[in-house]
Specification:
The structure holds two protein chains of two kinds. Chain A has helices at 9-34, 40-44, 77-85, and strands at residues 48-51, 60-65, 68-74, 108-112, 135-138, 145-147, 152-154, 166-168, 173-176. Chain A is elongated and about 90 Å long. In chain A, the strands form three sheets. A three-stranded antiparallel beta sheet of chain A has the order 1-9-8, with no helix packed on it. In chain A, strands 2-3-4 form a three-stranded antiparallel beta sheet, with no helix packed on it. In chain A, strands 5-6-7 form a three-stranded antiparallel beta sheet, with no helix packed on it. Chain A is an alpha+beta fold. By secondary structure, chain B is an all-alpha fold. Chain B folds into three domains: 1-29, no CATH class; 37-288, Cytochrome Bc1 Complex, Chain C; 295-401. Chain B contains 17 helices and two strands. Classes of the chains: A alpha+beta, B mainly alpha. Chain A: This is Ubiquinol-cytochrome c reductase iron-sulfur subunit. Chain A: It catalyses: a quinol + 2 Fe(III)-[cytochrome c](out) = a quinone + 2 Fe(II)-[cytochrome c](out) + 2 H(+)(out).
Chain lengths: 177, 432
Amino acid sequence: MAEADGVRRRDFINIAAVSAAGVAGVGIVVPLVSQMSASADVLAASSTEVDISSIQPGQAIKAIFRKQPVFVRNLTPHEIAEANKVDVASLRDPQTLEERTKEGKENWLITMGVCTHLGCVPLGAGEGEPKGEFGGYFCPCHGSSYDTAARIRKGPAPKNLEVPEYAFTTDTVVKIG
Amino acid sequence: MSFPWAKEYKPSHPFMQWMDDRLPLPRLVYNSVGGGYPVPRNLNYFWNFGFLAALCLVLQIVTGIVMAMHYAANTQVAFDTVEQTVRDVNWGWMMRYAHANGASAFFVVIYVHIFRGFFYGSYKAPREMVWLLGVVIFLLMMATAFMGYVLPWGQMSFWGAKVITGLFGAIPFVGEPLQQWLLGGFAPDNAALNRFFSLHYLLPFVIVGVVILHIWALHIPGSSNPTGVEVKSESDTVPFYPYYVAKDGWAIGVFAILFCTALFFFPNALGHPDNYIPANPMSTPAHIVPEWYFWPFYAILRAFTQDFFIIPAKLMGVLAMFGAILVWFFLPWLDRSPVRSGSYRPLYRKFFFFGLIPAMAVLFYCGGAPAEEPYVMLSQIAALYYFAHFLIVIPIVSAIEKPDPLPFSITESVLGEDEAAKLAPAPSATVA
């Protein structure tokens, strides 16, 4: 018996068995947790192409990206000027219009149509919908108002409307996602 | 575990004796809800609501299992299967509306049950564990009810799911991945609907489990009572069977009349017309409201419109909403008064009736109202009082209040005199 040094064979077996059970436990929990994440088919449907050729200045369309609305808006020169007039430092989520659009395509404002407060779809993209007091979007749920660069200006939403990842594949086609 | 004068289970039939030696389930029932459980003789009608809550749980499980037989958790057909259940399935309309209104009835009953606890100090030692388990049950009920409301996949279902899962998005750093993990996608969709259905079916049975613990913990000290004075002698109690079985039976009758009135004459009164429009992820209803039983907490969520130092308004609202219930967990230790019942606490009673109840009523009203003035300001004032009530008013009141004299015993409070009081030393009459 090696009891003199305080470590017995049993101690080793005990630690080894409990450790193995612990590793096995983690191994069981990982798939159980991971299966809840977005599945491959959901992720595969996570990019979308939009033809923007028919959107006139001042108009906007709602496209679908990841089962959520995306606003594609063709800003008028007046709206661009409005957005650039604002003192960026005074904004809740300071960003310029340039930072929210692609270079040379400042008139194309592409944002998620998902209010950053609690996820409602703001109004202002459709014909005749109210655009709120800052001329961009207005969320009817809790009254958040966004300006012509879709930046939060008033109401409970903490952030500007999110700009998804996108690229112009041609002058008239945008690939979102 | 029980009082020494509790009647013992003595099976007379040979089979029951044989059974008692092998699986003493009848003994457990006898000691829990039979003649073997002595209960204070002075319980008022507010004590019927625990039993009614159990009844509601059974009602929800039975009607829910029926609903699941006719429901398909798929975004393409979920809305239609619910409508088909109502229109085509034999008695489907009754099952559906009994289940939907049963949820409302469950919350009516549970709110009375909880506020009974607030007023009579049911949360105090030695019943803290009963209270804590009760709060757990309430949280489980809220989760279950929320997920159930999503299943018909109407407009309110969808946008309710979006807004509530959006709350998790407010958590710093992990919010967005957490939200996507909960939904199994970027927005509520088939994956979310399926897991909500799975969990909506599971959680009621978890509730059953916690209810068993709740009752187990209750039966160790025994039921509280309106005086808050602990049971002293046999003359303070009556056996649960037949006395409270009969009284609970009477309560079932009253409950059934009210429930059937709602079910058969106003089945949609507490619902929302927008939920009869199939879910449309591209268009938000003009006025999103949760079910009425969430209104006070929804009002607290929306009461935060300004950033609070470095905490954004949205996160603050989420924290406050969950905090409004989590604060109940600390109640047994926030209230230091040795007197349980509000009946003998003049100051506590004033704050209960003229503070907590009106604040809760305002929150209820504002939670269902649009997010505009004056409702936002009213919810802010009411939410402020709500938290102050638990965190400031209750600790201070319990420290400075001079309680009214307590009766010597339950018997004395019922009969006006107790023989034992004349023999007992006088000082014990003033101590809780």
